[in-house]
């Protein structure tokens, strides 16, 4: 059954969109990621304009983050002090990202920039994930466990002025570090429609040196508010949020997340990470090829 998407300006099959959202939700449940970094590329592959795909995907990420935040709050896994600084940086990044989005749109380069950023980000993140997962699998097979990582913040963070104590995270660092991290994540959320968790979580662990038991919950706390802000800014400025598309994506992702969570219980974590890395690299490769292929329709007509 087809339905017309008023903002995207095309008709899509409802069941395909729900299945797409379900697939991303399943990945979210299996791997513990928001899935926003895969939603936008998959929508683009289906034929949704990149600008609409990026703006609408952030709405889905917002909905998917709510339950996660409350779950981590109940077990004390959220550093609200750190989260507030990250949110402040994220809100500033969202505003800057909106200006950048409109400039790129005026130049006619927003679709190309979205594709290039996704190719670079997914390729680099997928490569690092694959390396770490393969090392873990190899260590398990050989019976020689990897040495535990030492929790410490990056030397650049240690040199920043004006330190604050973040008791829940066990840190004594400058608030400029999480502020800058939140700012960069806010820009990515605005441009790409991602929650930023796939970048935020490693950065919080290996750059800020946060305690692992509050990283995911604090990241989701930041993602919740930044994606809400991104959706509102997109709605008021670019007007690229297709609420019809977002609703059907959310329906699928909620169901898929439950299925993915059950599947995750039957698979080993090392192999789960390796599978996720493979999926990310395949999507990155497909987007890289798409940048070089000539489309079937060189010109498109859109009524404003």
Automatic annotation (TrEMBL):
Record flagged with keyword Acetylation: no
InterPro entries registered for this protein in UniProt: TM_pro_TauE-like, TSUP/Inactive_protease-like
Localization per record: Cell membrane; Membrane
Keyword check for DNA damage: no
Keywords annotated in UniProt: Cell membrane, Membrane, Transmembrane, Transmembrane helix
TM regions (residue ranges): 12-38, 44-71, 83-101, 113-134, 171-199, 205-228, 240-259, 271-289
Superkingdom in the source lineage: Bacteria
Membrane topology: Multi-pass membrane protein
Gene Ontology cellular-component terms listed: plasma membrane
Coiled-coil boundaries: none
Main location (coarse class): membrane
The family this protein is said to belong to: Belongs to the 4-toluene sulfonate uptake permease (TSUP) (TC 2.A.102) family.
Protein name: Probable membrane transporter protein
């Amino acid at each position: 059954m087809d339905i017309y998407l008023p903002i995207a300006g095309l008709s899509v099959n409802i069941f395909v969109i729900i299945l797409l959202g379900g697939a991303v939700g399943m990945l979210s449940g299996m791997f513990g990621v928001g899935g926003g970094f895969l939603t936008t590329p998959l929508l683009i592959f289906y034929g949704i304009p990149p600008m609409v795909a990026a703006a609408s995907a952030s709405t889905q990420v917002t909905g998917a983050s709510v339950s996660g935040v409350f779950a981590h709050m109940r077990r004390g896994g959220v550093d609200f002090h750190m989260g507030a600084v990250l949110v402040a940086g994220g809100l500033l990044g969202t505003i800057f990202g909106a200006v950048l989005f409109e400039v790129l749109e005026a130049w006619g380069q927003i679709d190309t920039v979205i594709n290039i950023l996704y190719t670079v980000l997914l390729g680099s993140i997928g490569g690092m994930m694959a390396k770490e997962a393969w090392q873990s699998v190899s260590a398990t097979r050989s019976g020689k466990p990897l040495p535990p990582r030492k929790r410490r913040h990056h030397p650049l963070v240690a040199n920043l002025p004006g330190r604050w104590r973040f008791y829940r995270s066990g840190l004594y660092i400058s608030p400029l570090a999480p502020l800058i991290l939140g700012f960069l994540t806010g820009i990515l959320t605005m441009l790409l429609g991602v929650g930023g968790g796939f970048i935020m979580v490693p950065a919080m662990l290996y750059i800020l040196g946060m305690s692992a038991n509050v990283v995911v919950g604090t990241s989701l706390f930041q993602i919740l508010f930044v994606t809400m802000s991104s959706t509102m800014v997109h709605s008021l400025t670019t007007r690229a949020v297709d609420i019809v598309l977002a609703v059907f994506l959310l329906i699928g992702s909620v169901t898929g997340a439950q299925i993915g969570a059950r599947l995750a219980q039957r698979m080993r974590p090392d192999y789960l990470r390796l599978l996720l890395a493979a999926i990310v690299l395949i999507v990155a490769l497909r987007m890289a090829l798409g940048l070089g292929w000539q489309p079937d329709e060189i010109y498109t007509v859109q009524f404003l």
